[in-house]
């Protein structure tokens, strides 16, 4: 179990403009990810150090986005002005979470221009929608070299999160101490004033600490 990535729903001016602001603040380039046909979304990727990445995601005018919880979550966050949508933990086995949540993981995929395909299984988006402080979970499948953090070698490091919520709630959700997947990513927990969830993420960059 390890922290994999953070997801940022694009703001009202769209995927490209939102991504450009974030990549400029971090002093690095973003790379086009692609379309998630099962979810009705598309993304852009900013690789980070330590096998992590930042995803900026946009909902598409596509029937899948009305049916898939991930598409629904992106649409709702963008409609509220955009911002941090959630964080994701990668695991080797989703079966314990399927048993505990009483539903099956769903497949995800996107294709590269050269025909290679990134594939995974994920679960927990409904939990994220109901309580945005909790992470969703995925299991990567296929070629490990296609992991989004490996698009290019990055020196930008995710150093801390500020989350409106509680460590106890997230630990209960994960079935493991929340510190385990976060490893060296620090968390400041705040009492929610309204909707819980990620308030900000701090990155260590060539120009110093940057908080978004």
Note down, in words, how this protein is organized.
The protein has seven helices and twelve strands. The longest helix has 12 residues, at 15-26. With 212 residues, it is an alpha+beta fold. It is globular, with a radius of gyration of 16 Å. It has helices spanning 15-26, 63-67, 69-79, 95-101, 125-130, 167-174, 179-182, and strands at 2-9, 31-36, 41-48, 52-59, 83-90, 106-111, 117-123, 136-141, 157-164, 186-190, 197-205, 208-211. Helix content is 25%, strand content 39%. Residues 3-175 form the Glyoxalase-like domain. InterPro entries: Glyas_Bleomycin-R_OHBP_Dase, Glyoxalase-like_dom. This is Glyoxalase-like domain-containing protein.
Task: Describe the structure using short key phrases.
212 residues, eight-stranded mixed β-sheet, four-stranded mixed β-sheet, 7 helices, 39% strand
**Overall 3D shape:** globular
Largest sheet: 8 strands, mixed
Number of strands: 12
Helix fraction, binned, reads 25-40%
Contiguous helical run count: 7
Strand order of the largest sheet: 2-3-4-1-5-8-7-6
Taking Cα atoms only, what radius of gyration do you get, to the nearest Å?
16 Å
Counting helices, strands and paired strands, the structural category is: alpha+beta
End-to-end span in angstroms?
25 Å
**How much strand content do the residues show?**
35-45%
Compressed to H and E, one letter per element, the order equals EHEEEHHEHEEHEEHHEEE
**Average predicted confidence as pLDDT:** 93
Taking pLDDT < 50 over at least 5 consecutive residues as the criterion, the unreliable ranges are: none
Pfam families: Glyoxalase_3
InterPro entries: Glyas_Bleomycin-R_OHBP_Dase (IPR029068), Glyoxalase-like_dom (IPR025870)
Organism: Arthrobacter bambusae
Protein name: Glyoxalase-like domain-containing protein
């Amino acid at each position: 179990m390890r922290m994999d990535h953070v997801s940022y729903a694009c703001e009202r001016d769209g995927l490209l403009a939102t991504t450009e602001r974030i990549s400029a603040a971090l002093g690095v380039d973003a790379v086009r990810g692609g379309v998630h046909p099962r979810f009705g979304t598309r993304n852009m990727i900013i690789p980070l150090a330590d096998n992590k990445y930042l995803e900026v995601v946009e909902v598409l005018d596509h029937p899948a986005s009305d049916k898939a919880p991930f598409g629904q979550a992106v649409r709702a966050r963008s409609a509220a002005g955009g911002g941090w949508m959630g964080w994701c933990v990668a695991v080797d086995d989703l079966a314990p979470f399927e048993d505990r949540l009483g539903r099956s993981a769903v497949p995800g995929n996107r294709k590269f221009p050269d025909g290679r395909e990134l594939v995974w299984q994920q679960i927990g988006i409904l939990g994220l929608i109901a309580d945005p402080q909790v992470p969703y979970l995925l299991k990567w499948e296929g070629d490990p070299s296609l992991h989004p953090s490996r698009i290019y070698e990055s020196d930008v490091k995710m150093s801390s999160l500020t989350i409106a919520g509680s460590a106890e709630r997230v630990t209960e959700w994960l079935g493991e101490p929340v510190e385990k997947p976060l490893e060296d990513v620090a968390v400041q927990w705040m009492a929610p004033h309204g909707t819980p969830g990620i308030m900000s993420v701090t990155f260590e960059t060539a120009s110093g600490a940057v908080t978004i």
